[in-house]
Design brief:
By secondary structure, the chain is an alpha+beta fold. A 4-stranded antiparallel sheet has the order 1-7-10-4. It has a 4-stranded antiparallel sheet with strand order 11-12-14-13. Strands 15-17-16 form a 3-stranded antiparallel sheet, with no helix packed on it. The chain is about 35% helix and about 15% strand. A hairpin with a 4-residue loop joins strand 19 and strand 20. Helix 3 packs antiparallel against helix 4, helix 9 packs across helix 10 and helix 14 crosses helix 16. The protein is built from 20 helices and 20 strands. It folds into 5 domains: about 230 residues, no CATH class; about 100 residues, no CATH class; about 90 residues, no CATH class; about 80 residues, no CATH class; about 50 residues, Alpha-Beta Plaits (2-Layer Sandwich), CATH 3.30.70.
Length: about 575
């Protein structure tokens, strides 16, 4: 295909890339639903505002958070919600019920989201290639008379305006196989070269010449006998944003460009962009609206007329160019590789993958914290997490899990420490609501109190308060110690207890030691550019700090914070710096 567009042609265009990671955010959403009870709104069947705010924070994307702050909702989260439903990870009522004879719209009382554990677990067991194909199948296969590229811009990244949807359930639209059309375009895109800008107009021209009926069948089948509007009767153009408009005349020489061409433009900024398969470039004569509009417009951006007052609607030939990437080609050629996992002696785990490795991350995040999430995902083993998992599953072998993921033996120091952590975890079993009974004499307890004897004269018991009352009624003069969470109470003087001797021996062996404490502060910067600029100023001011370029952070002594604030004040004209505490 002669579609190539040189870099000189795109330098004056508005280039848009998708910085969000749909796959990761999908799993964040699903795990959020898994861990709590989520009820949808009564009228609109949407997520509650409180849930949207929590999800935006968990996702961590600045644009999503800005969207939520502006209007209390998020088109991105709505899209992920719908995708999770399509994939069968969750279920909720989408039909609703009419609450009375006068109801014109359905309501959704007590509509709680149900998490489908088995379906989700099955998905995680698929390979990365299979997971990607299942997501792609869900997106390409969706169909509704108005939920398609012609009539809807509910895709969170779409900005081009659409045809008026009036009458879209009749005429030609029901005969269109949108799933086949989308797959045809994806197959055509894989013939392009990675990283090369292509002209959208020439791409459309090529399809017109080679496969003009890829979208609307040559012989259209219309159910309505009264239909007399021809092939393009559903597609009306207007010189006003909300005007009724006139149908496109199929006999016009540019009719294909005005209907199928518009579809192709909107397809490119839909599935390929949201899956991070392409970058797109728009005409700068139009500006993408950044401020969120009414709820009806689904708080998404749309292209608005800026200069040309005679521009027809929907907009035409505004998505000027596109380029595909290597990720897309590997997906289409079924060449997605197994994620590469590397466990380093520093307790860091590096994960390299063509696409977000959901199954690997589901395993690793049980034992480690995510430090950075970029092209390479970096995690760090967490002792407390490892211990918690071992308490939950006594048969779990963390070393084996990590070695299987990495495909090789762990560094010796990691294996040694994990073994120590395992031993530490095995030493403690928490019995919530139980107690210890120490009794030097042979004592037969009533049925149901005794759990397990762990040492001579010491027994784990149920319902310690109730047992204490029984001991009092039996005139055995018991002593009850309710230990606080932070420490153990010493038995009273004169009480007979093995622990009295242990505590006294411990006290005798204790040596007084004075420790000196110094706090340090770590600041993470949003960009390498800002990090290096600040670091340069700190060096010039002879400010003592440690630079960590991999995590975009600096570390310094807490006592030096006032000096750092003075340095930040010098950048107030350029930046509004706000420091937030991390958990």
């Amino acid at each position: 295909m002669n579609l190539m567009m040189s870099i000189n042609d795109v330098k004056d265009l508005d280039i848009v890339s998708n910085s969000r990671e749909l796959r990761r955010d999908l799993h964040v959403f699903v795990n959020y639903i898994r861990e709590r009870e989520v009820k949808r709104t009564y009228r609109s069947n949407e997520l509650q505002k409180a849930d949207i705010k929590r999800l935006a924070k968990l996702i961590g994307d600045p644009e999503t958070q800005e969207e939520v702050r502006a209007i209390g909702g998020s088109l991105w989260i709505d899209f992920i919600d719908h995708l999770a439903l399509l994939l069968g990870f969750i279920y909720y009522d989408t039909e609703g019920e009419y609450m009375g004879y006068t109801s014109t719209e359905p309501s959704y009382p007590d509509n709680h989201i149900e998490f489908r554990e088995e379906t989700y677990r099955e998905f995680l067991h698929y390979s990365a290639q299979e997971q990607e194909e299942r997501i792609l199948n869900a997106l390409t296969g969706r169909y509704d008379h108005f939920d398609n590229e012609f009539f809807s811009n509910t895709c969170p990244l779409s900005v081009l305006n659409t045809f008026d949807r009036s009458g879209c359930a009749t005429g030609v639209i029901p005969s269109i196989r949108f799933d086949k059309a989308r797959r045809y375009l994806l197959d055509l895109l894989k013939e392009c070269n990675s990283g090369v800008w292509y002209s959208t107009a020439s791409f459309i021209r090529n399809i017109k010449e080679e496969h003009p009926f890829f979208l609307i069948p040559k012989d259209i089948k219309v159910k309505e006998r009264w239909w007399n509007k021809g092939r393009y009767g559903n597609f009306r153009e207007s010189k006003e944003r909300w005007g009724p408009g006139e149908p496109v005349n199929e006999d016009d020489p540019d009719a294909f460009e005005r209907v199928e061409g518009r579809y192709i433009e909107r397809f490119l900024e839909n599935i390929p962009l949201i899956m991070r398969y392409v970058d797109v470039a728009y005409d700068k004569a139009y500006e993408r609206r950044k401020k969120y509009q009414s709820r009806y417009e689904r708080h998404g951006g749309i292209l608005v007329l800026n200069k040309d007052k005679k521009q027809i609607n929907p907009s035409l030939n505004q998505l000027k160019a596109f380029r595909i990437n290597e990720r897309f080609l590997r997906v289409m050629k079924k060449q997605i590789q197994k994620p590469k996992v590397t466990v380093l002696p520093t307790f860091e785990i590096h994960v390299e993958s063509d696409i977000y490795p959901a199954n690997v991350m589901a395993q690793l995040t049980r034992f480690a914290d995510v430090i950075t999430d970029d092209v390479t995902i970096t995690l760090k083993l967490n002792k407390n997490k490892v211990a918690a998992q071992l308490i939950e599953d006594e048969e779990l072998n963390v070393i084996s899990v990590l070695e299987e993921l990495a495909g090789k033996k762990l560094p010796q120091n990691i294996e040694t420490d994990l073994n120590e952590w395992t031993t530490h975890a095995e030493m403690f079993t928490v019995f919530d609501g139980f107690g210890l009974l120490e009794c030097a004499e042979s004592l037969k307890l009533p049925a149901g109190f005794s759990v397990e004897s762990i040492a001579p004269d010491i027994t784990i018991v149920r319902q310690p308060s109730k047992l204490y009352s029984w001991l009092e009624d039996s005139e055995l003069v018991p002593l009850l110690l309710n230990h606080p969470d932070s420490s153990f109470l010493m038995p009273k003087k004169g009480a007979r207890s093995i622990f009295s001797t242990i505590f006294r021996d411990i006290e005798k062996r204790k040596k007084r030691v004075n420790l000196k404490r110094k706090y340090s502060v770590t600041l993470q910067f949003p960009s390498k550019e800002l990090l290096m600029g600040i670091a340069k100023e700190l060096k010039a001011a002879k400010f003592p700090f440690v630079l960590e370029e991999r995590t975009n952070s600096i570390t310094f002594t807490k006592s030096k914070e006032p000096e750092l604030e003075e340095i930040f004040k010098a950048r107030e004209k350029e930046y509004l710096i706000k420091i937030e505490d991390m958990n």
